[in-house]
Amino acid sequence: MQFSVIQQILGLLLILFSTAMLPPVMVSWFYHDGIEREFLGAFSLILGLGLLCWLLRRHHENRELRRRDGFVVAVMFWVVLSLSGSLPFFLTTELDLSFTDAVFESVSGLSTTGATVITSLDNLPKSILFYRQELEWLGGMGIVVLGVALLPLLGIGGMQLYQTEIPGPMKTNKLTPRIAETAKALWLIYLSLTVACTMAYWAAGMTLFDAVGHSFSTVAIGGFSTHDAGIGYLNSGLIEILAAFFMFLAGVNFSLHFFAWRRLSVQHYWRDEEFKVYLGILVTVAILASGYLWITRYLTEPLLALRHGIFYAISFGTTTGFTLSDYPQLPGFLPILLFMVTYIGACGGSVGGGMKVIRVLLLYKQGVREIKRLIHPGAIIPLKIGDKSVSDQIIEGASGFIVIYVTCFIVIYLLLLATGLDMMTSFSAVTGCLNNLGAGLGQVAANFEDINTLSKWVLCVAMLLGRLEIFPFLVLMLPSFWYD
């Protein structure tokens, strides 16, 4: 284990993250809300810690980052980052948050979960509202991936770190020959989507502040809002349509966006099997949701039922977690259907949560192949995604991931029940946090403020497990990782 390299990278990334405190300072000055001191204090502390880590190892020889080092950096950084990100929440007296609540809000933002313990958003200082949205935006693509683009400046390769951060089972594919260029390409696409979303929201009637804030959480598939009423505060069908459109785009594998930009063509979207399954799932859930809302007469206007059904299908299917004002009153099985689809989640290589469409597709194809083998035991049946064969190693990895994912759900669900939460609250809370969704049912339908302290810490772990796709955390628990 190269602890000097790990410390160098951790210091660099903390220095990078400290700059996230500066935009809220400018927002505070512009709106005169008096919170700039808290952000400047947090900036100084995080910058100082980052410089300390960096300077202590500045004379050590730069070496290539190994795969094990990448796991340690990714896990350590998200834990340290979550604690650092909680400083403005904890220091701001207007919020009056406990240390637990401040960390919970920070973890939720950075992991793009969107679960909140803060109420009365409409009365909060603008700088705090902006900071919450900014945390989701930074966590969406992953500040670690941005750091990868800077690692060549240190003479340290970044492929191992990139592989631990990018979601999905096929992590060896790069968009460009150099990993730093890949990270830059991803961020360019991410930034372009954010700017386009901001302009669209602004043109649709949002204020510029709200347009920027909601574009951050939309493109990051986060779910935070600057208003208590969420994305539906303007009660605008056009804004809901725009939100659904950009949530859908953010849930697509970013490599498809990259090739669309590079080749000025959209044909490869329709050739990608994962994309077609992703689209098919969302269309199916939208039809079921719209039809159920209309048949039960919960919404009597067919077009309104269709609009709500499409919005909820995309919001939950991509694990964004935006809700409308009627969310707590959704009828019958619909809330459970929406929560179950979050376990599938968005595409691999996107900023969404869940197990990812590609893994579910692989598991389905593997199941079909096993059924065929019962009929033809001696047959060699290749498993393909599109026209490409998938190796057994990837299939085993996807199957193992899903098994561990379900096991984590069961363990966390039982822990929440043991803390005293009821079954519906526990189910929705672990589903919302493990899948980085944020929405809940029962006691957490509105927010997570009133649940007990132990449950909040358990859910913080669930959010980080979902954000890093479990394996980086679990691999650090193996003695062989440290001693082999």
Automatic annotation (TrEMBL):
Binding sites annotated in the UniProt record for K(+): T112, T113, I221, G222, T319, T320, N436, L437
GO terms, molecular function: metal ion binding; potassium:chloride symporter activity
Main location: membrane
Location within or outside the cell: Cell inner membrane
Sequence intervals crossing the membrane: 12-32, 38-57, 69-91, 137-162, 183-204, 233-256, 277-295, 336-364, 398-418, 424-445, 457-482
Topology of the protein relative to the lipid bilayer: Multi-pass membrane protein
A single cellular component GO annotation: plasma membrane
InterPro entries: Cat_transpt, TrkH
Domain of life: Bacteria
Keywords from the named record: Cell inner membrane, Cell membrane, Ion transport, Membrane, Metal-binding, Potassium, Potassium transport, Transmembrane, Transmembrane helix, Transport
NCBIfam families in the cross-refs: 2a38
Function of the protein: Low-affinity potassium transport system. Interacts with Trk system potassium uptake protein TrkA.
Family of the protein in this entry: Belongs to the TrkH potassium transport family.
Protein name listed in UniProt: Trk system potassium uptake protein
Native source species: Candidatus Nitrosoglobus terrae
